[in-house]
Write a structure and sequence with these properties.
about 180 residues; mainly beta; five-stranded antiparallel sheet; 10 strands; globular
Length: about 180
Amino acid sequence: MNSDSQGVGKAEVRLKWDPSPWNQPPHHLDIIAATYSADAPYGRPVYIVHFDSRSPDGTINMSRHSQTGQGLGYVEAMTLELDRLASSFARVVVGVAIHQNSGPKTFGDLSNAGVLVVEGYRQLLKDDFAQLSGSTAATFAEFTRNASEGWAFREMVRGFDSDPALFSAEMGSVPQP
């Protein structure tokens, strides 16, 4: 679904990928969310949420985490309670990074990878990373706050060539032409 949708209150981001072959090191992917203040919506993130953290106020957290991709369907999930975020926040960007501990890996090296963003039963985005086959990290969702209409979702599929730490710092930047 590529259209914008208004009034997102609580969203869930789900991630899946097949485990690596038995004789290869495991593929390890992570959902990462970065929050931005109303004063600097394209500045430095106020905080980052990933597998071993949650937001200070508990509004963004991981409900499932996988280091291998083993399991049925979507094996990693993050919940974003946007309607509970303080009014000082204006933007949340969500992405996925591939850990590079066992050598370089891109989305093209993975099989059956995909991301799903839902609000309740409503699908906001579904992507298989095919257009990002050469990237090691990617953003795919942006939530922005409009004072009169609440939180809006916008698809933001954009590839990066960076490790998870660098990606966390650059994922919300303004795209360069």
